[in-house]
Write a structure and sequence with these properties.
Length: 305
C-alpha cells in the first residue's frame, strides 16, 4: 500500500465550527545551556494564585498555539496554561538534530526555569509521545499526564513501516527540493482545511502552519517512527488520562485504547473527532480534553490531601 505525507494529510477532516478566540502573545524564556523558548503563559486564574499549571505540547508540524488555541481560553479559567513551540517547530529551539529526548528535556528545563510545582503535562499526537518521555526522563518533575490522539508505538502496520522508513531515507532527498515544491506536495490539504477557519483566524493559522519547514516535519516523523514506550509505559505512576479521538484514521482508536490499557489506573475520555479534532472539530474535542485535565487535577489533589 503506497502511503505519502500527502496521503496522511488527506485524512484530516475539516469542520467549519471553530471558536473565535483571543490568541495570547508569547514571551521569551532562556533555558540555560539549551536555548531560547517563546512561551505563552496565561498566568494563574484571577483569585486562584495556587491553581495547578498545565503545560500543553503540540502536534507534529504545528506550533503550540496552532494545536491548542481553541481550548486555551477555557483551560485558563481554572488553570495556569503554558505552551510553546517544540524544537524545529515554529519559533522553537534550533539544534543540530531533532530528538524526542531533547524535547522532553526542554519541558523539564522549562518547569525548573518557571519554578512550577509538578504541573500536568498534556500532549497531542507528537506532543503525547513527548509527554510520555517527560515522565520517563523526569518522573519527579510532573504531577500528571493527559495523552491525546497518540500511541505508545508506531511502525505496527505494514504501510506504516514502509512509510516511516521511507521518510528517513527521503530526508536526504528533501534537501534537493525547493521549499516551494515541498510545501505544495505536503501542505496543500492542510492549507485548504485551515482556510475554512473564520477570518482572521484562518490567516493566522496558515502562518503558524508555514512556520515549520517540510525538512523539520520529515525529521520529526522519523523520530516518532522510532518511538516505543511499551517496555516502560506500565511503570507510569502519576495520575493519567487518555483522550481517544474516536474518528481518527491516522492513529486508530483501538491503538489509542491499547496504549491506555497499559498505563495503570489511566482514565479514558472519548472525543468524537478525527486526528485534527483539536482545531477543526474543537466542539467535540474540547469537552473531552477539559474533562481529562479536570480528572487528573482532582486525582493529584486527592493524593496531596
Amino acid at each position: 500500500m503506497k502511503v505519502s505525507i500527502q496521503g496522511i494529510l488527506d485524512r484530516l477532516e475539516p469542520v467549519l465550527r471553530v471558536p473565535q478566540v483571543d490568541i495570547p502573545e508569547p514571551h521569551r524564556v532562556d533555558l540555560p545551556g539549551r536555548g531560547e523558548l517563546w512561551i505563552t503563559d496565561t498566568g494563574a486564574p484571577e483569585g486562584r494564585p495556587d491553581a495547578p499549571t498545565v503545560i500543553l505540547l503540540h502536534a507534529v508540524g504545528c506550533t503550540g498555539m496552532l494545536t491548542w488555541f481553541p481550548v486555551v481560553g477555557e483551560l485558563a479559567e481554572h488553570f495556569r496554561v503554558v505552551t510553546f513551540d517544540q524544537r524545529w517547530h515554529g519559533r522553537g529551539i534550533v539544534s543540530d538534530e531533532f530528538a524526542l529526548r531533547d524535547c522532553a528535556d526542554d519541558v523539564a528545563a522549562l518547569i525548573d526555569q518557571l519554578a512550577l510545582d509538578r504541573p500536568i503535562v498534556v500532549g497531542y499526537s507528537m506532543g503525547g509521545v513527548i509527554a510520555q518521555r517527560v515522565w520517563r526522563q523526569h518522573p519527579d518533575s510532573i504531577g500528571g499526564l493527559v495523552l491525546a490522539a497518540t500511541a505508545d508505538h508506531f511502525r505496527q502496520r505494514g504501510y506504516e513501516i514502509v512509510f516511516l522508513q521511507g521518510v528517513e531515507v527521503a530526508m536526504t532527498g528533501l534537501r534537493r527540493l525547493t521549499t516551494a515544491r515541498v510545501r505544495r506536495a505536503s501542505q496543500a490539504r492542510v492549507r485548504r482545511a485551515l482556510e475554512t477557519l473564520p477570518s482572521p483566524v484562518n490567516m493566522w493559522a496558515l502562518n503558524q502552519w508555514r512556520a515549520t519547514s517540510p525538512w523539520a516535519l520529515a525529521q520529526a516523523l522519523a523520530a516518532i517512527g522510532r518511538h516505543n514506550s511499551r517496555p516502560w509505559l506500565g511503570q507510569v505512576d502519576v495520575p493519567t488520562a487518555v483522550v481517544i479521538t474516536g474518528r481518527d484514521h491516522l492513529i486508530p482508536p483501538g491503538r489509542q485504547r491499547a496504549m491506555a490499557s497499559r498505563i495503570q489506573g489511566a482514565h479514558v475520555h472519548d472525543a468524537a473527532c478525527g486526528h485534527a479534532g483539536c482545531v477543526l472539530q474543537s466542539e467535540a474535542f474540547n469537552p473531552a480534553l477539559l474533562a481529562a485535565v479536570d480528572d487528573v487535577a482532582a486525582r493529584i489533589s486527592s493524593v496531596a490531601v
